Amino acid sequence: MKKISMNALDALFAKIASTMKLYAPIEKAGQADFYEWSAGEKVRLDVLKTVKSAKDVFFPQVEDLIKFRVEGKSIELNEAPKCEDDFVVFGVRGCDARSFELLDRVFLVDPRDEFYAARRKHGIIVTLACGEPEESCFCTNFGIDPANPCGDASAWIVGDELYIEPRTERGAKLFAELEDADAAPVESAKKEISAIAEKLPFANLDFTGLDGEHLMEKFDDPAWERLSKACLGCGTCTFVCPTCQCYDIRDFDTGHGVTRYRCWDSCMYSDFTLMAAENSRHTQLQRYRQRFMHKLVYFPSNNDGLYSCVGCGRCVAKCPQNLNIVKVIKALGGKKA
Amino acid sequence: MTNNLIPTLGVVTDIRVDTPDIKTFRVEKIGGGKCFEHEPGQCAMLSIPGVGEAMFSITSSPTVTDHQEFSIKKCGCLTSWLHLMEPGQQITIRGPYGKPFPVDTELKGKDLLFIAGGVGLAPLHSVINYCLAKRENYGKIDVVYGSRSKDDLLTIDEIQNEWMKPENDLSVHLTIDRAQEGWDGHVGFVPNYVTELGFDPNKTVLVCGPPIMIKFVLQALDGLGFKKDQIYTTLELRMKCGIGKCGRCNIGDKYVCKDGPVFRFDQLDELPNEY
């Protein structure tokens, strides 16, 4: 166990950033998200949930794939560079850290996504225990421990000190110069966090019947109509979600050539499945159902029963219509299959 | 390590006008030769930079050694641009994607019945030519093919001059939707024609065409005593990545680009009806 005074964090960040890129929850325009750190940035380790998850560090909201130059009938194609240097992402909560493992199951399975794979290879993850999990949090349902997150190193804020437990060689190297510390304060902090987490309103959701074994059982449930009725199809849930991975690939004519890029997309959008001839999901009910069936049934079917949700509660907090996955689980789970 | 999202360059070396809205494009590597090997029923992503990228079934048989063909109907933005191309135009291509028809396993030794409507012949074209190239591996082969009019029949020259050669031992049953001057063949919709022809329900069926045709063909086949596990089709959903990650072609726990596009109807029964 290592420790550093909270007052000295800026110096630590400066030291890390002198050798590699450092991402942390940084406040910009009144909200905290993961941005690259530079001197003077306002790091907000006190913010429990960044507005967007930490996923864009590995799967950016927009990224270039190819540059084309077109001349007459000829095309010149240049692949966009992939990440080649180590970087640190600091202050990732346990839920977001788990989401990387779920994204791995999409992007790292054959055929692999090389852009994502390069970032995962070079990313050093420093997690941060959740001092006070909120009412919208339900990560413990998925076996995530907010008091003891994983990663290359884990951190706990106790009073004016930040305690850091390196868990891998890369994590150890990063904090080698910090002073050694007694782990006792962290142990009592863990107990306090766990005590809060146990009492959260969504701590014990019943998923009975929602699993990959029963692929079509919930598909025609009449509850979908009630659940989806108010959905605006705004896609906010998908953009703040740490595990949503749907993306679009588009071309942009820059005037000097064509850039092919990918960007996050949402299965909640009416044009997501639109083809020239028809649309396979033409109602919002179908699109709403697709999102949750994917997270709670289809994804587990392909991934050893794991749900594609980490209980971060961002959709609970952000949906303008107060719809969320918890309501879906409560309505469809717990029923006898 | 090859990057699955990065295409290679191809060149369109020949363009054949098949029907008023379908052209067949011959694609080769720059310098000649196939861009990659494929199996019957597999697809490829074709793109014109600045316009877009989309999935198309590979129309030519894997047994063609020096190029690949794509029969493409003009119906959206990218396909309209493809139709404006002239020979010599470079495009980008990546693939092959998806699981092929099980030509060397489940279909081997079987009597085959191909049923196609309109541009639905495109994915089956590859399989039919593959079967003809390895004729001894298959039993009796029938092809029922229909379109709106005689002018909309795809690759009609090849059908009449190649497929119908006696040594191929292949029966072709053509039909068009409405009677037309200069057509003395069958007139009527494909599903009704299938019923009229009354096939032996021991055959294995490969059907491809507009959804409405497929729906009634299934009813017709059911009436003749065919079971769902004897009938194969290909699905077509919007796709972007082609490698089962972008989420677009997800139905149930399957991705059409990766787990399809070829499905048996008994397999489709286990998936949501969102295709």
* Rg over alpha carbons of chain B: 18 Å
Number of helices of chain A: 10
Low confidence ranges of chain A: none
Strand order of the largest sheet of chain A: 3-2-6-7-8-9-1-10
* CATH-scheme architecture of the largest domain in chain B: 3-Layer(aba) Sandwich
E-strand count of chain B: 15
Shape designation of chain B: globular
Rg of chain A over CA atoms, rounded to whole Å, is: 21 Å
* Strand-pairing-aware structural class of chain A: alpha+beta
Fraction of residues of chain B in helices? 10-25%
CATH superfamily of the largest domain in chain B: Nucleotide-binding domain of ferredoxin-NADP reductase (FNR) module
N-to-C SSE series of chain B? EEEEEHEEHEHEEHEHEEEEH
What does this protein look like?
The complex is a heterodimer of chains A (337) and B (275). Chain A has 337 residues and is an alpha+beta fold. Chain A has helices at 9-17, 94-107, 114-122, 169-174, 184-198, 223-228, 236-240, 284-302, 314-318, 325-332, and strands at residues 2-5, 21-28, 31-36, 62-71, 74-79, 87-92, 123-128, 153-158, 161-166, 179-180, 247-253, 258-264. An eight-stranded mixed beta sheet of chain A has the order 3-2-6-7-8-9-1-10, with helices on both faces. The radius of gyration of chain A is 21 Å and the shape is globular. Chain B has helices at 77-84, 121-133, 156-163, 190-197, 211-223, 265-268; strands at 8-19, 22-29, 43-48, 52-57, 68-73, 90-97, 112-117, 141-147, 170-176, 186-187, 204-208, 231-234, 250-251, 254-255, 262-264. With 275 residues, chain B is α/β, with parallel strands linked by helices. Chain B has two domains: 8-97, Translation factors (Elongation Factor Tu (Ef-tu), domain 3, Beta Barrel); 112-234, Nucleotide-binding domain of ferredoxin-NADP reductase (FNR) module (Rossmann fold, 3-Layer(aba) Sandwich). At the A-B interface, strand 4, strand 5, strand 11, strand 12 and helix 8 of A face strand 6 and strand 13 of B.
